[in-house]
Amino acid sequence: SYDLTQPPSVSVSPGQTASITCFGDKLGDKYASWYQQKPGQSPVVVIHQDNKRPSGIPERFSGSNSGNTATLTISGTQTMDEADYYCQAWDSNTAVFGGGTKLTVL
Amino acid sequence: QVQLQESGPGLVKPSETLSLTCTVSGGSVGSDTYYWSWIRQPPGKGLEWIGYIYYSGSTNYNPSLKSRLTMSVDTSKNQFSLKLSSVTAADTAVYYCAREIFFYNSGRRWFDPWGQGTLVTVSS
Question: Which one of A86, A90, A100 has the shortest CB-CB distance to B109?
Answer without folding.
Answer: A90
